[in-house]
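Feature request, filed as a ticket because there's no other form

It would be nice if the structure record came with a short human-readable summary line next to the tokens. Right now we just get the raw output. Example of a typical job, pasted below so the devs can see what we mean:
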Amino acid sequence: METIRAWVVRSLDAMSHLWLFGALFRTGRKTYAGALYEFTYVFVWSILPFVLGALTLYVTTDAPSKDFYVLGLSTVRNGELLVFTISMLAPVLYLVLHDPEKAESFPHKLPISTMVTLVVVTCAALFALMKANAIKDIEFVFQFSVVLTLLALTFRYLAIVYHRSRMPPVSEGDLRANQDDFVQQYRKHVGAPEVQAQAEQAADFAKGFGKHLEGQQ
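Raw output as currently delivered:
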């Protein structure tokens, strides 16, 4: 049993140094789950225009042999997937090239940023050619755009996982520090010295009034 466990540990350590995907083997299940939730949320809202477009075509078409799937494909055959791919990858470049405070460097920064940039440039060039009516094989471009879209979704999920894995854990002390900073900024904004002076005057008045009552007794 110990031999198998040691072999698994060595295998995971070796795979953690793989190109592009090595950091995945150093990430916990909680990070995967959180990244999947965030990715699903973004993906559902991103494809909503295509779904609504297909639904609109379906309810407004009088053809008896209409097919929702075919109508859905018609909404992405004119370069829409190329724009969708760019919109999926633009946030990836920001996450890769921007290191937040106290965060580790983004894993596999150079290969991911290079490949993402190449995909974005390719999509932009193909979309420009399509709008200029310079492409002869539209079907090939559509199939190629599907491949690029799947690649973009993969990179988007990887970027979310890697970004979550490099962020430092938030402790109770960090939360209290942020709260204290907010309170200090608020005091500066409203003029804390005046508030404090008024509080001191009120305390002096209460103290003097208490002595006066004691004298009367």
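Something like this underneath would help us a lot:
Residues 204 and 210 are 10 Å apart (CA to CA).
The chain has a mean pLDDT of 78.
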